[in-house]
């Protein structure tokens, strides 16, 4: 599904990624865990084609959904209106969404039905994240990339968004970045720990006795 071979990336004198190699099979929820500045967001932006690696190769499926950490939205638009507008910008393989079909079922899937007729500016942080997830799912992506998807959520919203992401991972590959270990334990099948642009650990969640200890060892923290 995703094949990353010897990826490196620098910005000026700062080496952000160093010889990263990674294979992610179809249907896996992978957590990118690491301290701030570890290179998680840079790797994600290379995967979606926003940035080009200095060296190495990346193979990804043709349909990718992306939720950036900032989750930019047109706040003056209604929820349904926004999703219909974003669907109109997609390629022809999303024709049912562009014609207005499937938007309702997508809204139901992410739990936005009670809020679908509201302006986005009226929504809570948790519901805005759901709008961002719905937008990322337009076109039925084979790969869903989520950058810090639970930042700023209250405890109740955290539980709901985590459950939603676990559900989304049942029928697609999901890569999510976080610096919160509990996120990885609760949502992911596998964890990759990045530090200073390098992979320091790569293990299935069910094989890890203590994630905190593994993280400290991997990052010398």
Just give the CATH class of the largest domain: Alpha Beta
Distance between the termini: 32 Å
Strand content: 25-35%
Taken from the alpha-carbon principal axes, the silhouette is globular
Structural class: alpha/beta
Number of structural units classed as domains: 2
Radius of gyration: 18 Å
Number of strands: 9
Order of helices and strands: EEEHEEHHHHEHEHEEH
Could you give a short account of the major beta sheet? 6 strands, mixed
Structural account:
The protein has 221 residues and is α/β, with parallel strands linked by helices. The chain has two domains: 1-61 and 142-221, Rossmann fold; 75-140, no CATH class. It is 33% helix and 27% strand. The chain has helices at residues 40-47, 79-88, 95-98, 103-109, 125-137, 155-168, 181-187, 211-219; strands at residues 2-11, 14-24, 29-33, 55-59, 64-67, 143-147, 173-178, 190-195, 198-204. The mean pLDDT is 91.
Sum up the structure in keywords.
8 helices; 9 strands; single chain; 221 residues; alpha/beta; globular
């Amino acid at each position: 599904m995703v094949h990353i071979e010897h990826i490196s990336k620098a910005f000026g004198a700062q080496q952000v990624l160093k010889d990263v190699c990674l294979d992610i099979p179809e249907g896996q929820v992978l957590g990118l865990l690491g301290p701030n500045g570890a290179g998680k967001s840079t790797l994600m932006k290379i995967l979606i084609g926003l940035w080009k690696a200095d060296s190495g190769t990346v193979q990804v499926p043709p349909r990718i959904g992306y939720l950036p950490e900032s989750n930019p939205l047109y706040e003056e638009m209604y929820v349904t209106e926004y999703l219909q507008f974003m669907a109109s910008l997609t390629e022809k393989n999303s024709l049912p969404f562009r014609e207005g079909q499937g938007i309702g079922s997508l809204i139901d899937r992410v739990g936005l039905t009670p809020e679908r007729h509201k302006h986005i500016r009226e929504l809570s942080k948790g519901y805005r994240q759901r709008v961002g997830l719905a937008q990322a799912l337009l076109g039925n992506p084979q790969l869903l990339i989520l950058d810090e998807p639970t930042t700023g959520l209250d405890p109740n919203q955290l539980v709901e968004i985590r459950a939603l992401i676990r559900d989304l991972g049942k029928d697609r590959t999901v890569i999510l970045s976080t610096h919160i270990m509990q996120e990885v334990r609760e949502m992911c099948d596998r964890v990759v720990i990045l530090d200073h642009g390098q992979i320091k650990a790569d293990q299935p969640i069910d094989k890890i006795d203590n994630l905190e200890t593994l993280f400290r060892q991997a990052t010398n923290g």
